[in-house]
């Protein structure tokens, strides 16, 4: 039944919104949020079996940094990720109300299964259930924006560009 509802809503949105590439409008945005929260993202009634403690949040932060930080930044707010706002759809700020309104089971479901048509990959078979639940604990307790710096890969890129620019000026 969920699949049929999703197909009908998607078809209706395609007819209503057309096939052009543009920034989603308020109606389109609200419809997609409703579809994701109510129809396409499972796990709504699945509770997190891992209590959020300082230790589990720290473990979740470590796993998040290794697996999620490349797109979401180390703080879950895409700090230092140069493409985060430029992809379609943009990489979400995990501290936003839209993300925080998901139930724990839904967050775990997204981590496990990915989220089409976004760039969110599925981590099933890569991360254990326990690791995914700890990431959910971390997402529920995100640090202040920018407080963890930027992912190392982007530091290296920035430093490399600076060295290249300095080299051009010395010729």
How would you sum up this structure, described in words?
The chain is mostly helical and 171 residues long. It has two domains: 40 residues, no CATH class; 128 residues, Cytochrome Bc1 Complex, Chain D, domain 2 (Orthogonal Bundle), CATH 1.10.760.10. It is built from eight helices and no strands. Helix 1 runs antiparallel to helix 2. The protein starts with a helix and ends with a helix. About 4% of the residues have low confidence.
Give the tags.
mainly alpha; 8 helices; globular; 171 residues; Cytochrome Bc1 Complex, Chain D, domain 2
Number of strands: 0
Helix/strand/pairing class, anyone?
A: mainly alpha
Please outline the major beta sheet: none
Mean pLDDT across residues: 83
CATH level 1 class label of the largest domain: Mainly Alpha
Whole-angstrom Rg: 19 Å
Oligomer: single chain
Summarize the helix and strand pattern as letters.
HHHHHHHH
Query: Would you give the CATH topology of the largest domain?
Result: Cytochrome Bc1 Complex, Chain D, domain 2
How far apart the termini lie comes to 67 Å
Strand content range? under 5%
- Discrete helix count: 8
Percent helix: 40-55%
Number of domains: 2
Annotated CATH architecture of the largest domain: Orthogonal Bundle
Gross morphology is globular
CATH superfamily of the largest domain: Cytochrome c-like domain
- Low-pLDDT regions: 34-39
Layout of helices and strands:
Layout lengths: L1 H16 L8 H15 L13 H14 L1 H4 L24 H4 L3 H10 L15 H12 L11 H18 L2
Helix pairs in contact: 1-2, 3-7, 6-7
Short description:
This protein is an all-alpha fold. The chain folds into 2 domains: 1-40, no CATH class; 42-169, Orthogonal Bundle (Cytochrome Bc1 Complex, Chain D, domain 2), CATH 1.10.760.
């Amino acid at each position: 039944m969920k699949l049929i509802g999703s197909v009908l809503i998607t078809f209706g949105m395609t007819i209503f919104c057309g096939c052009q590439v543009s920034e989603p409008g308020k109606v389109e945005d609200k419809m997609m949020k409703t579809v994701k929260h109510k129809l396409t993202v499972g796990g709504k009634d699945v509770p997190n079996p891992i209590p959020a403690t300082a230790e589990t949040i720290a473990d979740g932060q470590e796993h998040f940094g290794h697996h999620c930080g490349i797109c979401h930044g180390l703080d879950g707010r895409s700090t230092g990720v140069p493409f985060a706002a430029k992809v379609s759809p943009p990489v979400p700020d995990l501290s936003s109300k839209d993300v925080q309104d998901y139930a724990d089971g839904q967050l775990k479901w997204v981590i496990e299964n990915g989220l089409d048509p976004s760039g969110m990959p599925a981590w099933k078979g890569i991360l254990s259930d326990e690791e995914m639940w700890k990431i959910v604990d971390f997402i529920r307790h995100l640090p202040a924006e920018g407080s963890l710096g930027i992912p190392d890969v982007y530091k290296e890129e920035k430093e490399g560009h600076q060295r290249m620019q300095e080299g051009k000026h010395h010729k």
